[in-house]
From TrEMBL:
InterPro entries: HAD-like_sf, HAD-SF_hydro_IA, HAD-SF_hydro_IA_YjjG/PynA, HAD_2, HAD_sf, PGP-like_dom2, Pyrimidine_5'-ntase_YjjG. Its EC number is 3.1.3.5. This is YjjG family noncanonical pyrimidine nucleotidase. Transmembrane segments: none annotated. Keywords: Hydrolase. Pfam families: HAD_2. SUPFAM superfamilies: HAD-like. Signal peptide: none annotated.
Length: 229
């Protein structure tokens, strides 16, 4: 069913347009080679990815700071695979990861197709909890930055999704009322509930087909946004 009355669409970036897991894996492969870390990459990633998601939840909930996230997720993952790495090397890997992450720019299937489709009838925006120094590079290097009129970053606002302040800040920057706005993202708590709680419509990008809430509009491929817009 088509959604009526929408003028502005707000996208999350990581895990929604920008394929974080794929780009992250390539980055780790690169920085491990640069730092002579001889570890089984697939085994490391199997532990790192859920650990990283948990650290991001702690960061989103204001329970840890950025430095703790960057160090802790690596330290815990190395511990999980019983691989000893000195603290100064973890700090170096953390810096290298941020430096090289935006050099890999795989997007989810049909990203360009859907953005080209939507841009003719809607004004497009980004709301992201990612680090500001990295997110601009991701959008620029993956050639999608020109699609978006505004980019709202949690670091510049001072709060993270699902805090209503970041959504309200984004709406003000876009100069659009909440009843004409739509949020699209992969995180049920941060993107979907965050938007719904301020009265914004939302669509969950559910690539893992988890069917989190049957009352929430969901897609598993970006091209399926055409069913709603």
């Amino acid at each position: 069913m088509k959604i009526k009355g929408i003028t502005d669409i707000f996208f999350d970036l990581d895990h929604t347009l920008w394929d974080f897991d794929k780009n992250s894996a390539l980055t780790f492969d690169k920085i491990f080679k640069l730092n002579n870390i001889n570890i089984n990459l697939n085994e490391f990633l199997a532990y790192y990815e859920p650990i990283n998601l948990n650290y991001w939840k702690l960061y989103r909930d204001e329970k840890i700071d950025k430095a703790s996230l960057r160090f802790g997720r690596l330290n815990d993952a190395f511990s999980a695979v019983d691989f000893t790495v000195e603290n100064h090397v973890i700090h170096q890997l953390s810096e290298d990861y941020i430096t090289h992450l935006s050099s890999f720019n795989h997007l989810f299937e049909n990203t360009f197709e859907i953005l080209d489709y939507l841009k003719h009838n809607y004004t497009l925006h980004i709301i992201t909890n990612g680090f500001s120094e990295v997110q601009q590079g991701k959008m620029k290097n993956s050639n999608i930055i020109h699609y978006f009129k505004t980019v709202t970053n949690s670091e510049s606002v001072g709060v993270k999704k699902p805090n209503p302040k970041i959504f309200n800040h984004a709406l003000k920057a876009a100069n659009t009322p909440v009843n004409k706005a739509l949020m699209i993202g992969d995180n049920y708590e941060a993107d979907i509930l965050g938007a719904i709680n301020i009265g914004m419509d939302a669509i969950l990008f559910d690539t893992k087909n988890e069917a989190i809430n049957e009352d929430v509009k969901q897609i598993n491929n970006l091209i399926h946004l055409k069913n709603y817009l």
